[in-house]
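Dear V.,

Thank you for sending over the compound details. I've combined the ligand you provided, zinc ion, with the protein sequence from our construct and run the structure prediction for the complex. I'm sharing the raw inputs here so there's no ambiguity about protonation or stereochemistry in the SMILES, which I know was a concern on your side last time.
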Amino acid sequence: MRALSQKHFIFASNINAKNNAMKKLISDILFACKRKCPACKKGSIFNSWFDFTPKEKCANCGVRLKDQDVGDGAVVMLIFLLGFTVIPGALIWEFASAPSIWLQGIVWSIVSVLTIFGLTPIIKSYILVLQFRHRK
Ligand SMILES: [Zn+2]
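Below is the predicted structure of the protein with zinc ion bound, written out as structure tokens.
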């Protein structure tokens, strides 16, 4: 009986650990959407809306953001995401209704550009938050 309750405890604690990890992941992603400094949670990370390079320092708290540069990590994640969504989407649309090639080109170009400009700062901010937390 004791072994069973011990296993139950381990199983329950694993579920709690997974739930906590999922909550932390979601809260980190939601925080990354704000594009704010991971130290003070107030200053902006990027110079402007279309400049995805981290600032030298946070204007609010002065922490060096340039040291946390994420390099090409965000772009690689984005390439994988677009490759696994745009190509199957175009193939499914082609086999389902065979639209003209120019329509496919326009639609998927717009989807790709919007995804790139929408997700690149979020993914970069997310990686920056993770680096800031684990490199301290
Ligand atoms: Zn700051």
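A first observation: Residues 101-134 form the longest helix (34 residues).

Warm regards,
I. M.
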